[in-house]
Amino acid sequence: DWSSDVCSSDLSYRILDKDQWHKSSLYGDYEDFQGNVIMQNIERRKDPQPLGTRFEGAKMFYFMRIYGGVGMHRGYLPGYPASHGCIRLPEHMAEKFFAEVPVGTPVEIVP
């Protein structure tokens, strides 16, 4: 039951877990076995994997999970919505929050 992850309102959560070197299990690239990108920015559920490739998950370093597969992590901020649902943070902020915020800390999402 996911409702145990939610705090006092529909937009309030808690840090459920942390993973400094997290990589996505759904989004990333297909690479050959020498590390050359064959297909980039793929979604594993939709994009068939070419023969002779391996999946390399998108880097989501300093990941702090708040709900299901959604969390806050270091990421590129292009200036427009470009995430699959996570909250991207500048590197210096992601590192600082990761170091200072313990599991269980309340998080409120304010639109």
Features:
111 residues, mainly beta, four-stranded mixed β-sheet, three-stranded antiparallel β-sheet, 9 strands, 41% strand, disordered N terminus
List the helices and strands and how they pair.
Blueprint: E1 12-14, E2 17-19, E3 23-32, E4 37-43, E5 53-59, E6 63-67, E7 70-74, E8 87-89, H1 91-100, E9 106-108
Parallel strand pairs: 7-8
Antiparallel strand pairs: 1-9, 2-6, 3-4, 3-5, 6-7
Strand order across the biggest sheet?
A: 2-6-7-8
**What integer value in Å does the Rg equal?**
16 Å
Mean pLDDT across the residues is 90
Mind summarizing the main beta sheet?
4 strands, mixed
Low-pLDDT windows of residues: 1-8
What is the number of E strands?
Answer: 9
* Class by alpha and beta content: mainly beta
Shape type = elongated
Strand and helix order:
EEEEEEEEHE
In what range is the share of β-strand residues?
Answer: 35-45%
Q: In percent, how helical is the residue content?
A: under 10%
- Count the DSSP helices: 1
Separation of termini?
Answer: 25 Å
Question: What features would you describe in this structure?
Answer:
By secondary structure, the protein is mainly β. The chain is 9% helix and 41% strand. The strands form 3 sheets. A 4-stranded mixed β-sheet has the order 2-6-7-8, with helices on one face. Strands 4-3-5 form a 3-stranded antiparallel β-sheet, with no helix packed on it. The chain is elongated and about 45 Å long.
